[in-house]
């Protein structure tokens, strides 16, 4: 209350003194008072707030700059979506191609048919099969591998033609090893051939085999001379062939098969005047109803 009275007295005193001033003096006094008030407002209110506002603006600018920098570092979402879509389409195309290739692979259930086809490819060529031994293996890979070892007697020219036929049989069938050695006893120019073939095996279920058709063979190659045979070596007379020649056995599975005289037979099939009675891992038993004939497979 006392402060209000003092302030009121001061105001009245200043008013009386202001009224005593002349017009020009009053104008100067008003300008002076306005300058004092402006200076007080500028230093006490505007300047601190202006500094704080400038600081806020600077921080906001820094934040915007950091945001723009982060945006420039981020990938283009639309572009990434398009790239991902293209990658997915390529993956589907590759999966379709892989499925197509897998359908062309031989399966475990089709091994007998494949072995029979290997024998059929020798039709018309004087090739005598000694043994055909398939072996499957699967390591730490997705597909099993089938290794087939074929042993037969042939001339160099006939072997070259046979190999040429096998090359067109399947794009997955490859010759992994070839060994040729001149026969000690046999016709001139004949060699003991060991041919190792390899192919991948598919995992699809075996389908019903189609009706066999006569294979279409390429034009035979012409080999003028066996490079393993000396021109001055005399010819040897060959021994008489056995009536039944066993060259391969597949005893695994529900339907064992055997390759006799370069043809595939199963239990119950007729060969000549005999019937296939039983197929064992190392022998085949034939019978004509009265007596049995045992064919053994040569094992090393």
TrEMBL record:
InterPro entries assigned: PilO, Transl_elong_EF1B/ribsomal_bS6
GO BP field: type IV pilus assembly; type IV pilus-dependent motility
Pfam family, one: PilO
Spans traversing the lipid bilayer: 28-46
Gene3D superfamilies registered for this protein in UniProt: 2.30.30.830, 3.30.70.60
Keyword Transmembrane helix set for record: yes
Coiled coil: 53-104
The entry's keywords: Coiled coil, Membrane, Transmembrane, Transmembrane helix
Keyword Transport: no
Protein name: Uncharacterized protein
Organism: Candidatus Aquitaenariimonas noxiae
Organism taxonomic ancestry: Bacteria, Pseudomonadati, Candidatus Omnitrophota, Candidatus Aquitaenariimonas
